[in-house]
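Researcher: Good morning. I'm working through a list of sequences from a screen, and I'd like to move beyond sequence-only analysis. For each chain I'm collecting a predicted structure so we can compare shapes side by side. This is the next one on the list. No need for commentary yet; just the structure.
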Amino acid sequence: MERTQVAIIGGGPAGLLLAHMLHLDGIDSIVIERQSMAHVLERIRAGVLEEGTVKLLRNVGLGERLDREGLAHDGTVITWQDRPPFLIDTYKFTGRRMMAYGQTAITQDLFAAHTARGGRLVEAASNVRLHDVTSSSPSVTYEVHGEETRIQCDFIAGCDGFHGVSRQSIPADVLRTFERAYPFGWLGIMSETPPLEDIVYAQHERGFALASQRSPILSRYYIQCPNDTNLADWPDERFWAELKARFPRDLADKIVTGPSIEKSIAPLRSFVAEPMRYGRLFLAGDAAHIVPPTGAKGLNLAVSDVFYLHRALDAYYKRGTEKHLEQYSATALRRVWGAERLSWWLTKLLHVFPDHDGFDNKVNQNEFDYLCGSQHAQAALAEQYVGLPFEP
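Model: Good morning. Structure tokens for this chain:
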């Protein structure tokens, strides 16, 4: 039997960030991760950070490497077939600056900080189970090498992703889920090549494409692909040729190609689970919601969840108030649904859907024309894309 104040299920960025912020306020926690940390630290994920995410990481002492290696991101370019590239100038409309910095690097930074302070972390934990989450004394059990351990705690933070045990521990008659599956995925590669100057979304009859950034010498590229795509059918040469075919010639010529260091296919889905609190169990990050990567919101939503959950736990332990605990789900979900709507809208606007006909295509084209011609539409998109401030 072990004892802690907050048991955190999941050792990804959400779980490690929550543990780090709790530690800064003198609140004890244990992180339980079902994978090895070597596996967690190798996962390739998103890399565009809202200004609120960047400020929070700096405020909790995690900004040194981010400021050294991250790329300032002041706008996003959209190309539409053969039309001139169009810049959504997020800095002009909001005065707020985003940053390209990979989730893998953030997880490494968090794990290094966790290890340096001697934080408690259990890796490769199997058969993780949550008990008595509606009581005042919940607990978590897990097994390592066949030996079971029980952790008694005050609260459980479910930061264990879409397939984790946390959401599954909420009864079916309490949990409501909302989902939209998309009939395509993204085939992505990482290459040690200098990225384009801007992040570029490309809408093309061959399918969507994206040129993204991770660092001055690390690029991330994606192309829309059918869900049944076989990775083995896409050697580097074929990928680069298809990617360039979806960009205007002048931009395509600027793409620096090279051997891929990672290649994967990700399905696209929109998913939300409500409520994000059940008794003393609180969901955060992918355990509660998934967004298509088109809006660059997944990691940023996980950070805002952690911000709200940390605030609630801090208020409980320092001032004895449960106000923020009671409001956590509703507060977090307002931001979640805003990000879901934006990500869905961008996905619908920029991708080729198998069931779209000429009418759908013309409506999408008209919507893009309106965006190009309306400062108000651009300002609204910029405000949502750069991320709204955290609620007080």
